[in-house]
Structure formats: C-alpha cells, structure tokens
Amino acid sequence: MRESLVLLAGQLVQMVLVVLIAPGITGVVRRVKARFMRRRGAPIIQPYLDLIKLARKESVIAENASWLFRGAPYAIFAFTWVAAALVPTFAAGLMFNWAADVVALVALLGAARALLALAGMDIGTSFGGIGASREMMIATLAEPAMLMVVLTLALTAGTTRLPEVASFLISAPFAVRASLALALFAFLIVALAENARIPVDNPATHLELTMVHEAMVLEYSGRHLAMIELAAQLKLVLYLSLIICLFAPFGKAAAEASPLIWALGATTLFLKLVAGAMMLGAWEVSIAKMRVFRVPEFLGGAFVFAFIAILLAFLTGEALQ
Amino acid sequence: MRLRLDPLAAFFGLIVNIGVAAASVYGLGLDRDHELSPRVEPLFPAFAAAMNLVLIADDVYSFLFFWELMSLSSWALVVARHDDPANRHAGHVYLVMAAIGTMALLLAFAGLAGGAGDLAFASLRAAPRAPYVAGLVLVAALVGAGSKAGLAPLHAWLPLAHPAAPSHVSALMSGVMTKVAIYAVIRIIFDLLGAPAWWWSLPLLALGAATAALGLLYALFDNDLKRVLAYSTVENIGVIFVALGLALAFRATGLEGSAAVALAAGLLHALNHSWFKSLLFLGAGAVLHATGKRDFDGLGGMIHNMPKTAAFWLVGAMSIAALPPFNGFVSEWLLFQAVLTGPSFPVPVLRFLSPVVGALLALAAALAAACFVRAFGVAFLGRPRDPATANAHEAPRAQLIAMGALAALCLAGGLFGGVIVQIIKPILVAFAGAALPGMDAGPTPFSLVAFSAARSTYDAPTVAAFLLASGCLSTWCAHRLSSRRTRRAPAWDCGFPEPSPRTQYTASSFSQPLRRVYGGLLFGAVEKVDMPAPGDARPARLTVTLRDYLWEWFYRAPARAVSRVSLWLDRLQSLPMRDYLLMMSGALIALLLVAAGLS
Questions:
Q1: Cβ of B510 under 8 Å from any chain A Cβ?
Q2: Within 10 A of B162 (CB to CB), how many other CB atoms are there?
Q3: What does the pLDDT read at residue B370?
C-alpha cells in the first residue's frame, strides 16, 4: 500500500513538473531563435507571463459558439496531459506507466488533435475550416508514421510499454541498428509536424496561406486560449521527452529509487530538454517554411522511412515470444 | 431442419439483438405517416428474425434458406421507397449482388459436403476433402459472405443500399447484417473447413487491408452523410477481415496465443462496430428527419438545434475513429498487439505481409479520424448552410433513448473491454485453440493484457479516471485562478468576418488536401479550374472529377459484357424451324460423341 502511494505521489509530481516546465521550454526555443536572428529576444519566462496575461483577460466567444467550443480546450489539455503522464520522464515505472502503452499514447494525442480540429470548425469561419482540414491531412500521414516508429521500437524491445522499452534501450549493448536509425529520422519529421514547427507550420505567423495550428485556434481568447497554448507547450515537452526517452535514455532513475536519485534524474532530464529545445531553435532558423502542398511529400518521406524501419524490424528482428 | 446455439452463435446473437432492440426503440419515435408504411412495418421483424435464424442454423439447407430470407427481407426494405429512382437502382444492384453471394455460398457448401449428401454441419465438419477443394471453398465463402459484408471489390452495393433504406433499417443493415456475414465467414472457414493451412489467410489479409484503407478514402471523398457511414462500414469490415486473417495464419502456424489475440480483436471489433455504426446511422436518421437533408452541403450547425443528438454522435464518431477511452480503440489496440507478434511467423511471406498490413491499419485509423472530424464538423458544427435547417428540432425522446443507450454501450465497451474478452473465452478456445495468454495477468480485473503484463497493458478505467481527473482539475483551476468573465461577440475571423454561411469550409473543401495526396493515383482525381479572362464578370468555377475504378472494372465491364452476349443470344429466339432442327441434331451428335469419349 505504502509503496503504491509513493508511486502515485511520484506520478503526480511528474505530471505537475511537466506542466510547470512546459512554457519555459517554449521560452528557450523562442530565445534561441531570437539570438540566432541577432535580436535580443523576450526573456525565457515570457510564455509564463503570456499565460498569466491570457488568464486575466476576459474570454470573448463568438456568438454562435456551441458547448463543444467552450469545453474543447479543457478536454484537449486533459488528453495531452494524460499522454504526457505516460512518458517516463525522470523516473521509469511510475504508477500510471503500467496503465497504457505507446499505442494508447498515440491514440490519446489523436483524440486531442481531433477535438482541436472540431473546435476549429465550430464557429463556421473559413479560417477554422482551413486549419482543421490541413491538420487532419497532416495527421493522416504523421500518425501512421509515428505509430510505426513506436512499433519498431516495441519490436526491438519486445514490449509496447514505454518504461520497458526505455530500460531495454539503456541496458542493451550499444549497437547501431539500421531500423532504429530510420525510426529516429522518421520520428524527428513527425515531431516537427505534430508540434506545428517550421518547416511544416510556423508558430509565429498569422499568414493565411501557411497557418495550420494558429488557424484552428484563431477564435479563442482569454482562459480558453491559455489552456490551448499550455496544451501545445505540453505537447512539445512530451515529444522532446519521448525522443529523449527512446533515443537518449541514459540517466533515468528507477521508480523505487530514493528521492535523491529522482532529483538527479529530473535534473538530467531538464538539461536534456533544454538541449533539445536549443537544437529545435537552431533548426527552425536554418530552414524556411514549406508550401502546404509540399508538406505531404515531406511527411510521406517520414511514412516511408518508418515503414522501412518496421519492415527491417520484422524481417531481421528477434521474435517477441 | 436442425438448429443449435453454440458460444459463437450466441455472441453474434448478442450483436444482432442489441442492434435490433436499439433500432426498434428508435422506430417508436418515427413519424407514422411519412417514415413508416406497410412496406416497412411487417418486414422489419421478418428481417430481424431471419438474422437470428441464420445464426442458429445447423445444416446447409436451413442456413441458406434463412440467409436468403435475410437478403430478400432487407431488399424489400431497401426498395420500400421505390418512388425514388436512386432507391430502385440500389435495390437492383443489391438483388444482383445478393444472388451472386448466395450462389457462391451454395458452391461453398457443395464443396464442403462433397458427394456424401449429408447436409448437417456436424457431418460437413467430419468430411475429408482435398486441399484444392478447401481452397475453392475458401474462395466461394469469401465471395458469398464477403459480398454481404462489403469486402472490396464486392462492396459497391453497400453505399447504395444501406442509405436507401429507412434509417433504423440502415442501422441494422450496416451495423448488424454485415456481422451476420462475418459470422458466416467464421463458421465456414474456422469451423467447417477443418484444420487451416497458412495460405488461407492470404486473401483475407490482402483484401481486408486494402478494403480498410480504400473504404475510408471513398468515405472521405463522398458528400452524403449516410453514404459516408456505409463506406466506413466497408472500412471496418476490412479491419475485421484482417483480424480474422491473422487469427487464421497464427492458428495454422501453431501460434495459438497470437491467434487468440487476433480473433479476440476481430470479434470485439464486430461487437463494437455494431454499436457505434448503429448509433451513427440512427443519429444521421434523426438529422435527416429534422432537416430532410443528408447532403453535407445542406447541413451545418445542427449542434445548436439538436445538442443531444450531436453529443451522442460525437461519442460514436470518437469510437469509430479508435480514440480512447471509447470502444473502437480497444479492438484496434488488440489488433496491433497481434500484428506485433508477426516476426514469429515461420513462413517468410506472412512475416513480410504483417508489417504491410500493420501500416495499412495505421493509415486507416488516421484516415478514420479525418473522415469523422469532417463528417461531424461539417454536419453538426459551424453555421447552417441552408436556412431551412435553421429551425430543425431535437429528435423525439424514443430516438434519443436508443442513441443514448448505444453511446453508453460505446463508453462501457471502451472501459470494460477486458471483461468482454473474458466472456468470449469459450469462442477463443474453440476457434483459436487458446484463450488470451495474458488474460488474468493484469493488475486490476478490468485491465486488458494481450500477452503478458510486462509486454503490453491497457487499463481503460485508469486512463479514463486520469482523463476525468485532469479535465476536472484543469477546468477548476481555469475557473478559480483566472478571470471568469465571458463575453459573446461576433466571430473574429482575422478581422474580416463574412456573414454568408456559404463562405464556410464545405465537405469538399475539407477533403481537398486529402484528395490531392491520395486521390490522384487511386481515384484519377482531376481538378479543373475555369478562370474567366480579366474583365469577364462570370464567376470562376472549380470542377473535380473522381473515377471509381472498382465500379468500372468489376461492375460496369461485366454488366456490359452480359448485355452484349445476351443481345447476341437474342437472335436465337426467332430462327426458322429448320435452324432449330439443325441445332438440335447438332447437339445430339455432340452429346453422343462426348458419351462415346467418356465410355
């Protein structure tokens, strides 16, 4: 009993920590981008200030908004948050990790995306529709690619549960596996697309020809917008920690370890997240936004890489049983 | 006539009768003067009874008799409103396909029975047969039952006939009758045909995976709410066929544990699909009743006038898109677990095929989400596209009860999938050779474990509890810590709101990016822009043409060949007497020669 309470406490601490650092990671990305552009840039805590500002303002809702429009931000946040809780961040084997596996993780993110697209269509403006339509088109390529990537890893590790995959990858003798390299490549493309980053989408623009994510949330304001922004920031942390967990898993604490080791694990993870955010910022300033109809080719590449990866894993890998 | 009820028949009986019950309750709310007629009322119970009787038939004669009864009663329901030429066309296509299907089933049973002549299922099971006969029976069974279920390329009648029937019958045909066809596949291939060979799974896997991906692409490019639902049935049938194919392959190669997971996925998906597809069809029927429209271009904003129907439909849409915590995800999850054991196939072809199938399933799941975001978003959200629909009314109470019950089942099936898997254990043992390997290994009684707890778990109640808790927590925080002021104002729309609802995204514009990605190769999609010259005041036009290659190759080409041959044979009808005499003597000589050659 006491043990499971500790695990639950660890889970809750992890969930709260992830939300707390999420805006900071976005702040790091923005800061790095600004410095590369030789601007001073906003302070790293700016996203926190933005969220507080949004929360203080009144929420202006379109006259014909339905209950779905008002409820969606909280549901989107909840789905994203629970998905983030599934990723073993600083400690493996926490309370919630056994409840669902990577397939469920992909599906939870899919649910959040579907709700966001529906919220975009609720007011009946052309921008909302354009965003929802493009988002779902991107998803039809990115989601199967992501599923195949995680299944490739699951095949290699012999389990679809993330903590076991991570601990397998830590303990397994280091070897360059072709399927894992392809999977990483595909996963990076998917992560860029899913987080609405350059070259698929530009989080800093409201130009109608290019926007996807921003077009869907155009009608939101106040606390609703704060919720959606926080969910998007959380999703970025989720993807970064998923990449870290799967492809750079060293330095993670075990669930039953002492709080000191947990703290050490959390510090390592934090440093890795900041490094990932800096790399993302550097990537974003080094490449231009793509035309929307070039995106399917880009993501089709991810799909093909992921497919080759899973094919290799099936044909060369050890049987699971 | 022999009848018996075994666990498999009982499970499918559950599917049939829950669907029938929901459709009947829904039917109480129908308009007695316009929607029900003497053409519908007596045939509805006949249709329901026929489906039940197919399940408990225990010999070939009664099976085929009840099968035909099911086909004909549903055909009569399809043509109940025969004053619409489209419905007559649908009825015609359906009748032809049903006749072909029954003939194929007849051939399948002939192959099963051999020359012995005993038509009881028990003696069919015991009869020895050569491998090539088994292959022919497999093909005939797939044509016969697959045409009823909607396996591509035999699916073309579904999107015509299912929407043509009254909505509660559409729900039965799409949600339930296709499951009776799945039952026939399981009964013939898993039960009567004897010990499986691995290559039997190839047609099921290939056709199933192709059907799954193709069905959704059809659905994404269609603009009729009920037809979209029928095409999505095609997709789900493909998923079930993939699960059955995997179960067959695992069973044949001695991997009983994986076979149990795959078969459980197939059975569970059949059950789940009967719930959410019935729900979606009933909801579409309520919208049709309230507005008189099922075309996306005439709908929009139904969530304001029909909030409860919209909420139930959203549950159905999330279930069918395999999103947790609803039931569609449970069967999808089990299926992926089964696909993941593909590397243990001893046969290289299957080892190669399973990731291909897995990729197509993943694609189908993502396309399903896009398809139902489009369907719900265009029909229920936004502003009414047609002023006539603006004063639509909420569905009557009986219909709401039927839809609400199905929506509750979708949620319950999502939460307690582990319990259902326990219940169907006898079927798994009988037809896959084992129960789920990790059945009792879960940390709680409700968690679903495919193989072992260390390998994969899905504990839906915990996930749902975390979802609920974090949703409530975030709502509470947002209302406690931030400003609760809310103001209604005109839509912002980047500063240029356009009052006309025609500027909204339509269903066609929603699928336009997808059409550009997937439509060119598979549907020969061509977009033509007619841009007037500068100074010309006429509006620019965009026309899109899509080609249905399957219809052209598998339906129109044979139909044309048949009519050409019959035109040619028509000449035999009016020959002079001497030509007939000549033909008769020629036939006699030919037969004598054959007889001489044989002896």
A1: yes
A2: 31
A3: 96
Residue B358 touches partner A, C-beta closer than 8 Å: yes
Does A26 score more than 80 pLDDT? yes
Does pLDDT of A259 surpass 80?
no
Taking Cα atoms as reference points, which of A299, A134, A108 lies closest to residue A216? A134
The first and second tokens of residue A250, run together, are 């060293």
Token pair in block for residue B169? 């019958």
Report which of B210, B107, B201, B90 is spatially closest to residue B156, judged by C-alpha positions.
Answer: B90
The model's pLDDT over B171-220, given as tens digits with 9 standing for 90+, comes to 999 999 999 999 999 999 999 998 889 999 999 999 999 999 999 999 99
Q: What is the CA radius of gyration of chain A?
A: 19
Is residue A9 a contact partner of residue A25, using CB atoms and an 8 Å limit? Answer: no
Cβ-Cβ contacts under 8 Å, B451 against chain A:
320-321
Distance from the Cα of B384 to chain A's closest Cα (Å) equals 9
Answer whether B493 sits within 8 Å of A126, measured CB to CB: yes
ipTM: 0.94
Tokens 């799967």 correspond to A246
Give the CA-trace dihedral at B217, B222, B225, B230, to 10 degrees.
Answer: -50
Please tell me the distance from the alpha carbon of residue A280 to that of residue A154, in angstroms, as a whole number: 26
pLDDT tens sequence across A104-141: 999 999 999 999 999 999 998 888 999 999 999 999 99
Q: Which residue has the tokens 């790091």?
A: A28
Decide if B150 contacts B114 (C-beta within 8 A): no
User: Which residues of chain A have a CB within 8 Å of the CB of B508?
Assistant: none
With b for 16 or more beta-carbon neighbours within 10 A and e for fewer, the B381-410 pattern comes to: bbbbbbeebeebebbbeebbbbbbbbbebb
